[in-house]
């Protein structure tokens, strides 16, 4: 699989429009455009996550989770996780470590540089038993048992 964005390339600095609005930041908190291809045969749904492995928590920080994206989905427009563009029917955004569902942008502690890993997973089931209150860890646990393939891109912000 391959994952790409019109908003940044792998390894680029995250644009301000995708930075959190809060915790000392004044970004637009817009989820980025994401698109993927080279999907494996047998794919029945997709999951998208954004994870910061550098957060000083001992367990990273979940910034976004979208489950139950239909198998024919190949793109999420900018803002789909922020309510300014539509998500496909039947998909669900899980709870981030900010405490609510939907996209939560970059917000590293001042003076630190963090990686924001966006990943698309192709799954062998059309539906995961998760909802808006499910944690990123629970989403990841479910993905683990149904993953056919995945692809990631990383943005950096400090």
From TrEMBL:
<dbReference type="InterPro" id="IPR005247">
    <property type="entry name" value="YbhB_YbcL/LppC-like"/>
</dbReference>
<protein>
    <submittedName>
        <fullName>Kinase inhibitor</fullName>
    </submittedName>
</protein>
<dbReference type="Pfam" id="PF01161">
    <property type="entry name" value="PBP"/>
</dbReference>
<dbReference type="InterPro" id="IPR036610">
    <property type="entry name" value="PEBP-like_sf"/>
</dbReference>
<dbReference type="InterPro" id="IPR008914">
    <property type="entry name" value="PEBP"/>
</dbReference>
């Amino acid at each position: 699989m391959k994952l790409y964005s019109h908003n940044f390339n792998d390894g680029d600095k995250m644009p301000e429009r995708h930075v959190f609005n809060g915790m000392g930041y004044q970004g637009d908190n817009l989820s980025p455009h994401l698109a993927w291809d080279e999907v494996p045969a047998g794919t029945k749904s997709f999951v998208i996550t954004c994870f910061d492995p550098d957060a000083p928590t001992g367990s990273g920080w979940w910034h976004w989770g979208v489950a139950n994206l239909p198998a024919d989905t190949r793109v999420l427009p900018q803002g789909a996780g922020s309510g300014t563009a539509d998500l496909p029917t039947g998909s669900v955004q899980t709870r981030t470590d900010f405490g609510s569902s939907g996209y939560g942008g970059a917000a590293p502690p001042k003076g630190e540089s963090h990686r924001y890993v966006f990943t698309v997973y192709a799954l062998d089931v059309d539906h995961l038993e998760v909802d808006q209150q499910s944690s990123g860890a629970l989403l990841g646990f479910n993905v683990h048992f149904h993953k056919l393939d995945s692809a990631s891109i990383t943005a950096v912000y400090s």
